[in-house]
Structures are given as structure tokens and as C-alpha cells.
Amino acid sequence: MKFILQLSKKNDHIWYSYQNRSDTPLPTYTIIMSSKEQTEKMSITATEIDRQYNDKPIVTLCEVEAYGECSEGYWGLLCTNKCAKECSTNCHIENGQCNTICLGNSDLPVCQAECALGQWGINCKERCSNVCHKSSCNRISGICDQGCLGYSDPPTCRFICSHGRWGINCSQTCSHECLNSSCNASTGHCDKGCLGYSNPPLCNLTCSSGQWGVNCSQTCSERCYNSSCYRTNGVCDQGCLGYNDPPQCNSTCFNGLWGLNCSQTCPEKCLNSSCLATSGECDQGFLGYSKGMILV
After folding, report:
1. End-to-end CA distance of the chain
2. pLDDT digits (tens, 9 = 90+) for 266-285
3. Which of 151, 188, 221, 267 is the most buried (most CB within 10 A)?
4. Predicted TM-score of the model (pTM)
5. What are residue 134's phi and psi, to 5 degrees?
6. Can you give the three-state secondary structure of the chain, one letter per residue?
7. Is residue 209 scored above 80 in pLDDT?
């Protein structure tokens, strides 16, 4: 018996034919094709029979098995159903369940449980980057969809904050308490030290009286009145003691003057009208009194 097998698309358009040309029938016929054409109907028709048995072309089949694969990303009898986006590109042809991976989900093969916070990718095995705000990222692509931490270009977050900036998408300004206005791009902490403050990197304690500079490590000049100076630059903030050019306090008092910004006059009875610029004590002695005494 000879027969022809035909595969048809929609509208009965035949796209594949196989014809048995052997006079000797086989117990099993295996037909393999590599095309990925969509098939909606298969027909098997007898084309030649032995007249001694019958005058009509009848085909008797014990079993027919047909196997096919949908195009990537589709499933179902007609291959018209799209695989869920959680399956990435492939799924089971029979039921649409993800067959190898879940993308952005963790419960293979159903793929309905979304990745936990901080996880993403195939079966949620990837960790969101620490440059993502709150370590949160898109569960499918891994991009920082809630912004960057310490970086300026969401959602890819490739460029670290410029000098003096920090925080979500670099939207914050480093504190003036930080040395050189430099701070950690992620936390805002003064990681290079404090200026006019102590307790780095928090820098939440102002310098004690008489101290200034990086982490309050400097002592105000003795030229400063009451040993007081600005905690950020060491300049005398209350005037000079024994010097006449506040706030720098570089020029000593002229002879006969002393005190705050050289505003006091040495006692009249100081020898040569000379006294210590800081205390007013007669440094060369004076008439009628012992050297070293202060006249009031």
C-alpha cells in the first residue's frame, strides 16, 4: 500500500507532503522534518491499493503519533499563547509553565512568587548592587529603579557623586562640618575628618573653647584674647592680647601700650613707660616700686 501524508496551515494551505513509494509496507514509518512552520491539520491518504483485497483506497492505522515544537516564547496546541515574561524566552508547550528558569521570580515552574527585596534575575539568584538605594532593584533587569545611592545617573548608577555631594542620586550636599566639604557619597559621613568639630566621622561635637581645626586638634594662639578663636580657621574671634591688628594678631603693641588690641596704656610710673603687652606688668621696673609690681 502506498500513501501520502500532508501537513496544512490555515485555510488548508499544504506546506509539507510525504509520499510512500515503496511497494513493501513497513511496520513503522518515521517521518522527520526540521521546518518550524505552524501546522493546523495533518492528513494521511492512500494512493494505491491491492485490488485483490478491496476496490476502495482505505488506510488502516494502528497508531499515529505527531510531535512538534512551538517557536521560542510560545506554547499551546496552536502555539498562539505567549510564554509569561517571567519565563524569559521559553516554557512548556503543554501548559505554559516555565521549564528551566524563572526571571524575576523564585518558584519554578509556576513563577508567580516575585523575588524578595534585594534579589533579582534567574530564579532570584542575583543580589541587587549596593549602589542601588535601599539595595532595591528591578527584579528582572537588576537596574536601580528606585534610584542610586552615592551615584548620580539612575538607573544604571555608574558615576559616583562629584566632590561635596552625596545621597540618593547625589541630591544632598556634604555638611560644612566636614573637612574640605568632603564626605562619604553613600552615608554623608565626614570620612576625611571634621573641621571645627570632633567625633569623626559624625562630627557632631563642636570644639571646646581654645581648640580649632581638623577634629579640634589645634590650640588657639596665645595671642588671641581669652585664648578664643574661630574653630574652623584659628583666627582670633574676640580680638588680640598684646597685639594690635585683629583678627590676625601679628603686630605687637607699640611701646607704652598693652592689653586687648593694645587699647591699654602702661602705668605712668613704669620705667620708660614700658610694660608687658599681655599683662601690663612693668617689665623694666619703675620709680619707687620693686620691679615686677603692677600699678593700678
Report:
1. 142
2. 998 899 899 999 999 999 88
3. 151
4. 0.57
5. 60, 25
6. CEEEEEEECHHHCEEEEEECCCCCCCCCCCCCCCCCCCCCEEEEEEEECCCCCCCCCCCCCCCCCCCCCCCCCEECCCCCEECCHHHCCCCCCCCCCCCCCCECECCCCCCCCECCCCEECECCCEECCCCEHHHCCCCCCCCCCCCEECECCCCCCCCECCCCEECECCCEECCCCEHHHCCCCCCCCCCCCEECEECCCCCCEECCCCEECECCCEECCCCEHHHCECCCCCCECCCEECECCCCCCCCECCCCEECECCCEECCCCEHHHCCCCCCCCCCCCECCECCCCCCC
7. yes
Q: Half-sphere exposure of residue 166, counting CA atoms within 13 Å on the CB side? A: 16
d(CA 187, CA 209): 29
- Other Cβ atoms less than 10 A from the Cβ of 66: the count is 9
Whats the size of the chain, residue-wise?
296
Q: Is the pLDDT of residue 171 over 50?
A: yes
What CA–CA distance (Å, rounded) separates 227 from 249?
12
> Which range among 21-30, 79-88, 252-261 shows the weakest confidence by mean pLDDT?
21-30
**Cβ-based neighbours of 210, under 8 Å, separated by 6 or more:** 219, 220, 227, 228, 229
* Separation of CA 137 from chain center: 9
Contact 102, 90 (CB under 8 A): no
CB atoms under 10 Å from CB of 230, counted, come to: 15
Q: Which three cell numbers stand for residue 249?
A: 594678631
User: What is the torsional sign of CA 224, 227, 228, 232?
Assistant: positive
Amino acid making up residue 282: C
